[in-house]
Amino acid sequence: MAKDVIIACDFNSEETTLAFLDLFKERKPFVKIGMELFYAAGPEIVRQIKQRGHKIFLDLKLHDIPNTVRKTMKVLSSLNIDMTNVHAAGTIEMMKAALEGLVREDGSRPLLIAVTQLTSTSEQRMREELLIDASIQDTVAKYSHNAQLAGLDGVVCSPLEAAFVKEACGKSFMTVTPGIRFANGTKDDQVRITTPAKARKIGSDYIVVGRPITAAQNPVAAYEYCIKEFLG
Ligand code: C5P
Predict the structure, then answer these.
(1) What pTM, to 2 d.p., does this model score?
(2) Residue 156 Cα, ligand 1 centroid: separation in angstroms?
């Protein structure tokens, strides 16, 4: 299975994003476009980044009724993206609808993964605010299993959970893991984190790295460091 580092382009304008991507001369990184950039710059930013030769993970975390998700996925798939996602909490029926919507006329489709529990969520918050009494591990395992039943390609999870997701769902079930921090860096608002090297050992297929690269003094060097640690 392909392994790669995905840069989370959490910027709020087209100019900032394209200026950031201009820094990368040799290798065109796989980029993640999230809600902030998509809502600020619209679908045109997806077309532009795609045209520059980047692969795109469109991270809009859909969570709505199945019919709305199906129709929305049809629109997103037409942008020629490589990967997108939904919240597993939207149910198996919603995930199946998402998958149906993504299939293009030629039969191809972007990869579809499900968000299990956000890496910023702690077990205490799950219990106190969401009234979920199960452990994070059990919740992630259950949501991953649901995603697999719906036919999805994998899940977004904390790198610390990638190993048991693989155990529960099999090696070919993809794990995409944010919550990556360098050994000497800050945690920001992330809770369940690890380094690129550890994520590699645990078996993540893709790591998603935002601020450790985008806020670095030298983003290209930070990216290359991630590639070296993660891909070896
Ligand atoms: O800056 P940082 O490396 O924390 O960015 C992580 C990215 O991954 C953000 O764009 C965030 O929205 C996303 N993400 C996450 N946890 C999830 C799913 C997505 O942090 N469970």
Answers:
(1) 0.94
(2) 10
